[in-house]
Amino acid sequence: MYSGDGYTQDQELGYLPGGSAYLKPEEWHVRAPFFCRLTKDVTSVKHPEGAGPIWFNYPYNQELLQKSMDQEIRYAYDAGIDFFIYHGPSDRLTHGGWGLLKNLHAQMSSQIPEAKKMHFVWALYGENPAMKYTSSRVATMMDETIEYIKMPNWQRVMDDRPLVIVFYPENFNKQLAAAPENEQMTGNELVDYIRKRVTDAGMKNPYVVGMAISGYDKAEDYKKWGYDAFMNYDGSYGGKIAKRDQSPTYAEATASITDVLEKKFSATGLPYIPPFSSMEYPWPRAINTKTHQIEEKHYHYQLPKKGDMAARIKTALDYVSSHPKECEAQVLSMYSWNECSEGGGLIPTMGKPPEYQPDTTWLDEVAGALAAWKYPSGSTDTITNTNR
């Protein structure tokens, strides 16, 4: 979300008009990522009239993005995080028109040592119905994807199987079913084609995961279509729609997540990558975009107290290690890195002016928990070939 292009300026920061401007209110300036600054303190830039109060990378500067992304990678890698999940449509289909992939390209271009060790996955993007996928467009997407998968820092699981995530499989299926007759594919054919392209390129049978927006109700379909497992895009369980702070505590939400996994996810019969979001406190987004009024109630649970996030990390890792059948890939996901306006956010924030010392509070707690955790006695450490 924070390349400096597109969504950064209007949707997130509100530096430019025309978007939701989630972090524009002063209350939420504390959520701005570490590379941001208050506009009034950025004197090297001629700001447009009416510019919002938070600035980053406008006018767009590739060198600044690279410097910022390099530091993001250092923070994540040093904390013990294994890989980033990026998503977006193929550049070859959008001709460079998708700003969110600029951060992926910056990781590919990075010259810092951590960038070659920090793994990544680029999820195949089916969310937008405007993509109008056909079999030919899927082939173009896979041409580009194979180049990424061949890289040594593409995330692999289960004895070197490339981890391939398909975001919104049902949307892929709808678009491919509506394609011209000679360009159609079924859900099974899409998964088979992905497997063939990866194995034809000389790699092992990929571990193909269907990623739903949220919930576990799609697992039956994913199993029918040939996916190895399923996961959630966010999967922020444990909260409720309530007035601000009249919601479950963070600790209660952590317990609720494991309860949902046990009773709902495992009952599907399809392996899964469990979701453990770092937070779910999306009050910057509790704005009616039509009336611009703040909603009285919103889905959330309370912010963590000291030690709560470390406890969640331990709970998550304990859960994965103790469920080798359901969590066969021994991976978990956290919708967490830069969901700064949505309620997650492990990325260090910009700190207080004029020093702008990055606030690493939550990431430090996660790093400590990851460093302290060990596989329980008697279990097999098979988490990934990049486990640190």
Task: Give me some keywords for this one.
388 residues, alpha/beta, TIM Barrel, 2 domains, seven-stranded mixed β-sheet, two-stranded antiparallel sheet, 11 helices, 11 strands, globular, disordered C terminus
Task: Describe the protein.
By secondary structure, this protein is an alpha/beta fold. It has two domains: 1-60, no CATH class; 62-372, TIM Barrel (Alpha-Beta Barrel), CATH 3.20.20. Helix content is 32%, strand content 12%. It has helices at residues 62-79, 91-94, 101-109, 113-117, 135-149, 169-177, 187-200, 219-225, 250-265, 308-321, 361-372, and strands at 37-38, 54-55, 83-87, 119-125, 156-157, 161-167, 207-212, 229-232, 240-243, 272-273, 297-300. Strands 3, 4, 5, 6, 7, 8 and 10 form a seven-stranded mixed β-sheet that branches. A two-stranded antiparallel ribbon has the order 1-2. Strands 9-11 form a two-stranded antiparallel ribbon. The protein is globular and about 55 Å long.
CATH class of the largest domain: Alpha Beta
CATH architecture of the largest domain: Alpha-Beta Barrel
N- and C-termini, Cα separation: 27 Å
Rg is 21 Å
Give the oligomeric state.
single chain
Q: How many domains is the backbone divided into?
A: 2
- Order of helical and strand elements: EEHEHHHEHEEHHEHEEHEEHH
Number of helices: 11
Annotated CATH topology of the largest domain: TIM Barrel
Give the structure's gist in a few sentences.
The chain is of the alpha/beta class and 388 residues long.
Can you lay out the helices and strands and say which pair or pack?
Layout: E1 37-38, E2 54-55, H1 62-79, E3 83-87, H2 91-94, H3 101-109, H4 113-117, E4 119-125, H5 135-149, E5 156-157, E6 161-167, H6 169-177, H7 187-200, E7 207-212, H8 219-225, E8 229-232, E9 240-243, H9 250-265, E10 272-273, E11 297-300, H10 308-321, H11 361-372
Parallel strand pairs: 3-4, 4-6, 6-7, 7-8, 8-10
Antiparallel strand pairs: 1-2, 5-6, 9-11
